[in-house]
Amino acid sequence: MKKHRKKAEGFNISFLDVMSCGLGAVILVLMLVKYQSDLPDPHTSALQADIDAIESEKQQSAQRLQTLRDQTGVVQNRLARLNAQHASLLTQIKNEQDTHQALQEQTAQLEAQEAPPEQAPAAPIPVTNDSLEDYLLGLKVEGEKIVILSDSSASMTEERLIDIIRHKVAPEKERQKAAKWQRTLRIVEWLIAKVPAGSEYKVIHYAEQADFVGGNNWKKGADPQDAATVRAGFTKIVPTGGTNLHKAVTLMRQSAAGFTNIYLITDGLPTQGKTGKLGGVFSGCASLTGRAQTISGKCRRKLLDNIIASYRETAPVNVILLPLEGDSGAAGTFWRWAAKNAGLLIAPEATWP
């Protein structure tokens, strides 16, 4: 010990000083290690940032997923309500269809009970030529070229004015089934059936306009096919509008030249016609060229008188006059036309033909 001390003393450093220095060095090293451990690692920080970002994205995805689930639930609820409404509507439609079908069946039954049985579309229409009723009637269908003129105006649906007005706004099928119009068709069929086998005929219907029924060609008497063509043409006619007999006569003159006999089916005086300039016989009939909705009986008689005065042909004119409420002046005026041309006017019973 003393040797060491002496050596140390030679260097002026004691053992305690050496020990103190060593301890300080150790402490310094520990402090450096502690400092280094407290410094952030760059790699660790980057990984932590990635983890944080992933965690944030995960939370956002979870929130979006929950939102989509909520929206899906709302859509499913709405779809369920729509399906329920659709099923309810289908049930209502089915009920309406059943009700409509039942009403159609009831209507068909009522029509079958009330409507007269339809005549078979055989042509020519079979009638008894030598019946007592035909003999008393006195109407004979004759001539080489026969023209049948059939009034198809609105008044040809019914006899009473109130019923005619009701039919004016009725559907077309109801107007075609009107009792008076059906009777008109039966009269046309009766006339066609009476046409002699060696004769020819044409049928013209007229309201505000005039046209041929079944075509403009001359039909042969006793020809079933021609009679069926005319009958089919009448099924397309709907009685409507005013009565312009002038246009029917004009069409007959233009497209049925050579006619030898005329058979006119109507229920009253015309309401329209070609009058030219007012004056003369049409004095006081301003309604013929104006927009008036009605025309007086006096002016209607003037219209027919004008046709009679202009008729220069010699072909007999036969008139079948059906009843019409409030048109008492028609019979006398039409009778003058028939009598002037060796024809006949009849106002047949409701049971004919």
Q: SSE layout and pairings?
A:
Layout: H1 2-11, H2 15-38, H3 42-114, H4 132-137, E1 145-151, H5 161-168, H6 172-176, H7 179-194, E2 200-206, E3 210-212, E4 219-220, H8 224-234, H9 245-255, E5 261-266, H10 297-310, E6 317-321, H11 330-340, E7 345-346
Helix pairs in contact: 10-11
Describe the protein in words.
Helices cover 54% and strands 9% of the residues. It is an alpha/beta fold and 353 residues long. It has helices at residues 2-11, 15-38, 42-114, 132-137, 161-168, 172-176, 179-194, 224-234, 245-255, 297-310, 330-340, and strands spanning 145-151, 200-206, 210-212, 219-220, 261-266, 317-321, 345-346. Strands 1, 2, 3, 4, 5, 6 and 7 form a seven-stranded mixed β-sheet that branches. The longest helix has 73 residues, at 42-114. Helix 10 (297-310) packs parallel to helix 11. The chain has two domains: 2-38; 132-346, 3-Layer(aba) Sandwich (Rossmann fold), CATH 3.40.50. Strand 2 and strand 3 (210-212) form a beta hairpin.
Major β-sheet annotation: 7 strands, mixed
Order of helices and strands: HHHHEHHHEEEHHEHEHE
Please name the fourth-level CATH homologous superfamily of the largest domain.
von Willebrand factor, type A domain
CA-based shape: rod-shaped
SS summary, helix count: 11
- CATH hierarchy: architecture of the largest domain: 3-Layer(aba) Sandwich
**CATH class category of the largest domain:** Alpha Beta
* Arithmetic mean of pLDDT: 83
Whole-number tally of structural domains: 2
Helix content: 40-55%
Beta content comes to: 5-15%
Write down the CATH topology of the largest domain. Rossmann fold
Tally the beta strands.
7
Report the structural category: alpha/beta
Radius of gyration: 54 Å
Uncertain stretches of 5 or more adjacent residues: 1-11, 128-132
Measure the end-to-end span. Answer: 170 Å
